[in-house]
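SAMPLE LOG
Freezer: B-3
Tube label: C17
Construct: single chain, 440 aa
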Amino acid sequence: MVVLDASIVDNQCITMGYGQAGVTIMNQYWESICNEFNVGLDGTLNYDPETSFGEINRMFCEYSSGKFVPRCIFIDTEPTPCEHIMNSSNMKNLYGKNLFAYGKQDAKNIFACGFYGKPGLAIQEDIEQKFRQQHERCNVLSEVGNYFSVCGGTGSGVAARISQSDLIDHKNINEVTFALYPSNKLSNNCVEPYNVLLNIYASRLNGMRFIFDNAALYRNLSSSIKSPTYHHANQYITKLAKTFNVCSNKGNSAAASYHTNLIPYPRLNTLIAGFSTGKDVKTSCAKYCITNSFHYSSISYQSQRLGKNLGAALIFRGNFNRYDIDSSHTYTYTNFAKFAPFGYMKILCPKLPRFLDNSIFTFNTKKIPESTLALFANNTIVGDVLTDVITNADLLLSNRCFLHWYLKEGMEELEILDARMEVDQSIDDYKMINLADGAE
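STRUCTURE (predicted):
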């Protein structure tokens, strides 16, 4: 088990939000980060004895005026989401105009518009310029975090184009993506299967991605909130993202170590995530959190059956019993593949968790939870998600439905077929692992 020393941080992280979903999620993410490090929404730093300057410098850049500005870039092909944050949100005084890259034309929910078409090409140079400016302000850039929905044109197309370009040195910089995937129960875009296939194919070997679907998020929230909204779902994602980044300090818990321990094969880099708060700090707390984090995971298939873990990391934060953490490996949910017999990668961050005043994790509670657990797992259940994507894409391809919207942007039909083949190979890999381990 790794115990973090929060005073030692010598690397920086840049976050990038693409499209309306990504921009909105990242804005909530930075509100949570400001609360974590006691930074005001106007960029002023308030003294906090529990926070070191190294931790703050990882996420914020200090300007000559003394203002602390997030290391981030908001990206969209249309101006409305970015202009709303710049002019109307409660965070408008935190960001500078140099953190926004947006165009004048919507990507029409089509991957090809963002990847090949004018909407994506029009903002690419601006994105690259702003990224280089952020990179120059870093001592050691170790991680790039992406936030987007693969269902839309900007999130799927522009994000894939930037990830595939030479802008990010994937040999030395870890790319971590938090992506919204389509849900069969909650969908308003007919071409989502095309967008998902093409996005996976274009960025298939770049870093790791954690996937979420809205049906699973609403299911997770319904136990504490009567009528969950997108705002509440975004909070769930940002809480996981914050835990991942705040607890990714120097040592075995660095982002590079997650890559090493959670991705056994380059193609199988899609992961699930789960989050739980502890009811108490008794000896049952760790097992209680592990149970909840698997049950309330980021994809809706978890309620049907549990696949094999190819790798898993548990981040215990707050007031945990260390003996309980060390003995939690004997729990029922240690369902690992035969080639991964060593169990969980365990990380203990002793700093108490912090929550916003309107946090979904403090609803219906008499006191603020003193312990939380974040689960990040590479599980063969992801194969079921990809199978659904393939099935829906085949229904469209067999009738050549909506294909003309992609071809008119300069994309070839062969590229969709190649993308389908690539995803199909990933599904076969998951099936082979299940068969080798005697799973159903």
